[in-house]
Amino acid sequence: MDLNDGSQEAAFRRRARDFIRANLPDGWGTPDYILPKGDAYLEFLRDWQRRLYEGGFLGLEWPKEYGGQDAGLVEAAIFGEEQARARAPQPLNVVGLFLTGPTLLAHGTEEQKRRHLRKILSCEEIWCQGFSEPGAGSDLAALRTRAELDGDHFVVNGQKVWTSLAHIADWCMLLVRTDPAAPKHRGVSYLLVDMKTPGIRVKPLRQMTGDAEFNEVFFEDVRVPRRNLLGGLNNGWQVAMTTLMNERGAPSISVGAQYYALFSEVVELCRRSRVRGGAAARDPLLRQQLAQLYVELQAMRLTSYRAFSTILKGGTPGPEGSILKLNWSETNQRMQDLVMALLGPASQLMEGSPYAIDGGRWQYEFLYSRANTIQGGTSEIQRSTLAERVLGLARSR
Ligand SMILES: Cc1cc2nc3c(=O)[nH]c(=O)nc-3n(C[C@H](O)[C@H](O)[C@H](O)COP(=O)(O)OP(=O)(O)OC[C@H]3O[C@@H](n4cnc5c(N)ncnc54)[C@H](O)[C@@H]3O)c2cc1C
Hints:
Strand order of the largest sheet: 2-3-7-6
CATH superfamily of the largest domain: Butyryl-CoA Dehydrogenase, subunit A, domain 3
Number of strands: 9
Radius of gyration: 22 Å
Helix content: 40-55%
Structural class: alpha+beta
Bound molecules: flavin-adenine dinucleotide
Number of domains: 3
Number of helices: 11
Strand content: 5-15%
Distance between the termini: 39 Å
């Protein structure tokens, strides 16, 4: 794989970089810039997504007929890389853009694609992912939320949990059991559910960061039209695999750039910090830890190119996505641990304290990073996937 930009790609990269710079708020990326909070933050992310869409930078690889740009995967990857370099925010509709969109493109009927894809891009409709349940996380196929056919509707009863963005979502990708008698992977179906349907109750869960971005979602006799079945009756497991492969492989090429940008900020923090009575940047132990992180980040960058190359050749991310998921989540946690050590006693000061370094941003990122090795499949599950599907080892019992 040639990692250098051709002339067209270089021109696109310049255009993307200029667009991002011109559209980020003044002061973005400086320690003085404070992100808006609560609803204002959601509005900020919505506005950012709309700007990207109107600027022609969303759905770069999606067909034009569904609101995309027909530009190709390389352009999408370049744009992702430039966003990561600028540490630009994620668009609000992350689930819709990175999970629902690719799943609909792979399995949707023409009617479903026309109905949903454009509104995902324009952020008119926010999506959430209703997969996990209290008794079905790593063992997703143990899910018990049921859907029974009643004429041309499914009637859904059950509960989901950890559903990110459900409190603001318009639609949900819902995994349900439609054949309780079938082996557990076979009796599952995939529904597209309008979150305003009567019988749906969303209860936010507060995380240790203080935010409440995920939720419990309860379904009581929720009627979902049969035309909202995605990928065929009892075929939901295959469809869910497309979603999960995209969840693990989606960061692909941008993930190296994203964590390298964060690393640069950590180095900059070192330059203005003191440890063990001297300048942090001169501390031999810290320098060694930074060098180790740098090596890991280079390995991550190369792995991300490898994963991207798989996507370019095969169209869908393979089980190699698990390497990248393990890599970014665990490297980020090590990086955040290092920052806490660097801050010393100040690491205890959260946002709101006048003495918190950089407005408490590092504490927030440290706390959030604990979720990284759980969300999108835990580290243990990624390791099992790699053992079985990449290395070909015997399945564990
Ligand atoms: C920030 C965040 C956002 C999330 N957003 C969503 C969302 O939008 N939609 C959604 O559906 N879900 C979401 N999830 C849920 C996430 O997918 C699950 O938390 C994850 O799959 C783990 O499931 P669990 O929490 O039930 O843990 P469990 O499966 O109960 O696992 C508990 C522990 O046991 C280990 N374990 C379990 N089985 C095995 C095994 N076979 N071998 C070895 N170890 C094992 C796990 O690794 C883990 O350490 C989110 C989670 C987080 C943290």
